Amino acid sequence: MPRLNPRHPCPWHRASVFGDGRRVPLDRERRARFRFLLRAHARTGRLAPKAEWVGLALLKRLGADGQCDPTHDTLAADAACSARTARRATAAMRGLGLLRWDQRIARDGWAIRQASNAYELVPAAAPPMHVPRSGGQDGRETTRRDISYCPQFTTAEVAAAQAALAQRRAVVEGRLLRNKTGMAAQVAK
């Protein structure tokens, strides 16, 4: 096999294919799984919200036979963003394993030009695990506190605090009983 020249004037031709490219149809369950993975990656911050919209636009453009070859401009129009954002979004989805594509090329006389990309949606990726970005507490996890700085009380101090609490309890119960008997006397009148 000949070595590819890294300084080729058209490096995008190296991994390009002539013809239709990949055609992988998705049934209803696999489409739902792809939507779930898009939302899950967007919730964890791995995908921007507009990247999720671009993913939904790709799903919208996926044909029954698995044909999915919209241009970045078409994806941008469907997702209400710019073509550059659509390019970044497809690259992000490719990095997460949600998307693969073949660069399709076509002959134009003696020249070869890139026609479009043939996208393949990959709903088989594992769902993302929630990892807090800041490393802090996110409401669903607990953290251990360092209690070494807490003061240590002697048994005499603990006994004095318990006696004070017992005295306070007796006062509160007495007030409640007086209020209860006072209300009963007013009702009886």
Task: Explain how this protein is built.
With 189 residues, the protein is α+β, with helices and mostly antiparallel strands. The protein has helices spanning 28-43, 49-61, 72-79, 83-96, 155-188; strands spanning 16-18, 99-108, 111-121. It has a 3-stranded mixed β-sheet, with helices on one face. Strand 2 and strand 3 form a beta hairpin. The termini are far apart. The mean pLDDT is 78.
Compact summary:
By secondary structure, the protein is an alpha+beta fold.
Order of helices and strands: EHHHHEEH
Low-confidence stretches: none
> Which strand order do you get reading across the main beta sheet?
1-2-3
Estimate what percentage of residues fall within beta strands: 5-15%
CATH class of the largest domain, named: Mainly Alpha
* Number of strand segments: 3
CATH topology-level name of the largest domain: Arc Repressor Mutant, subunit A
Rg over C-alpha atoms, rounded to the nearest angstrom: 33 Å
Globular, elongated, flat, extended or rod-shaped: what is the shape? elongated
Keyphrases for this structure?
189 residues, alpha+beta, Arc Repressor Mutant, subunit A, 3 strands, 13% strand
List the helices and strands and how they pair.
Layout: E1 16-18, H1 28-43, H2 49-61, H3 72-79, H4 83-96, E2 99-108, E3 111-121, H5 155-188
Parallel strand pairs: 1-2
Antiparallel strand pairs: 2-3
